Automatic annotation (TrEMBL):
Domain Solute-binding protein family 3/N-terminal: 74-292
Protein name: Glutamine transport system substrate-binding protein
InterPro entries attached to this UniProt entry: Iontro_rcpt_C, PBP2_GlnH, SBP_3_CS, Solute-binding_3/MltF_N
Gene3D superfamilies per UniProt: Periplasmic binding protein-like II
Annotated PROSITE patterns: SBP_BACTERIAL_3 (PS01039)
Chief location of this protein within or outside the cell: other
Species name: Paracoccus aminovorans
Keywords, in A-Z order: Signal
Domain of life: Bacteria
GO molecular function, one term: ligand-gated monoatomic ion channel activity
Signal as UniProt keyword: yes
Amino acid sequence: MNTGVPPRGRADGPSVGVGKFIAIRKKLCKHFCMIAPYADLALVRQGNNMKKLIKFASTVALALGMTTAVHAADLVVATDTAFVPFEFKEGDKYVGFDIDMWDAIAKDLGTGYELRPMDFAGIIPALQTGQVDVALAGITITDERKQAIDFSDGYYDSGNLLMVATDSPIKGLDELAGKTIAVKTGTAAAGWAEQNLKDTTLRKFPNIDNAYLELRAGNVDGAFHDTPNVLYYIKTAGNGQVRSAGDQVMAQQYGIAFPKGSELVPKVNEILAKMKEDGRYDAIYEKWFGTKPVK
């Protein structure tokens, strides 16, 4: 996985947007600044003839920088700051199901990438404004989101589930009138709760970890979030203090997100299908969820 901060052009096309232009400019500076100190000295010693030589060298550096930036540049990939086990920080790097899957896809695409973790609520705006090229963050495919961004084919079947304290009397979503429930800002779970839990107070958090901590501290009556994340938390960090309540609702799929009109969509769909056929998808799934996906 590439966790550096490479320049931001696309490797698969000549189009260069504002962000890409900035990356190219940085690349040119790198080339030109290498000769700048010598250029100053040469100008003093050699006069106009050396000025012509430096001008030619600068032109060559410009051409080299432009070629490198456009043809060897990498993709900027947005991911959530913490959505276990899909993406989360372990030591000094991000790991998880989404991270491993995108790493495999990028290898087939023949491109490097820069991960850019951010709060979930900022991911779709970042795609719309061209700040990022791709996003993997357990993003639910919805008709509303399709109006703003493009999606790959679904790569994970999910839903939403309520989590409460182990000793809570709450048995399901129909017992939440007058209660306070924690949700994550901008998620499908938050949207569903707003539409369906009219008599419930919703507390919104930019990071689901904070919502879970509030539940553990007894400051909210429950947390409503994506099923795999809830179950993973109960199994690991929950320490027997939390449990699920009721059935999963709103079965849905996660998709890889792109800016509208991205040429990457059909390429990524082709690779996803190939990964499911050759066993790579199953291997990554089993690594993070302990079982193979239901066919």
